[in-house]
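Fold this sequence, please.
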Amino acid sequence: MGTENPNVDHGKCDAQKEHWESVYSSNTDKFGTIPSEPAKITSTLLKKESKTSLIELGAGQGRDTLYFARSGFNVTALDYSHKGIEAINITATDQCLDDSIQTVQQDVRELLPFENDSFDACYSHMLYCMPLSKSELSKLSSEIYRILKPGGLNIFTTRNTKDPQYRTGLHRGEGLWEIDGGFIVHFLSKEDISKLCEDFEILQIDNFEEGMIPSLNEPKKLYIVVTRKPGL
């Protein structure tokens, strides 16, 4: 089990930006080029509802961004990593997807630079388990609510408290734990998610697994969450 620390270590959390820049600089395909299963699920849901404009938060190097663009969506990809955004721009040009992808480099802890009711949907894969405090996640949830159109969907994934790495490594406050490789992960419970999404209609919170944890030879445990902004 890890070492307890009751307060959020903002210094360690802030340093994760440089950590990710280093990771992306040394590995141009950190997560591969094949789209994630949550991205495929999201594409199906959006097509079913004839939604076309999508913002992806925490887009990384763009494996899901590019998939969404190839699937016919207009995608705005936002990430705080310069290297991540650079990778998306290069690949979008190479694949002639420039007209379908817009990129924004920004920290999601800041107000999102978009007008109210701008997007049909918001998607993020494991952004909610990045080193963001509960208050920062709550602020982000409010911003997502603001920029979604009435009836818009917010679809996200997060590692959860059933994950085998929960409460291992160094505790950085709240549900934040620094685990293998120096990554800080925020593990969320269903109760955490319900509180974060209290302004939305929660359509589903489902379990799924993704990838293996080499040190444990066990899969990561995640939730995929689908919520809707009330309205038309």
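The chain has one domain: 10-158+187-228. The longest strand covers residues 201-213.
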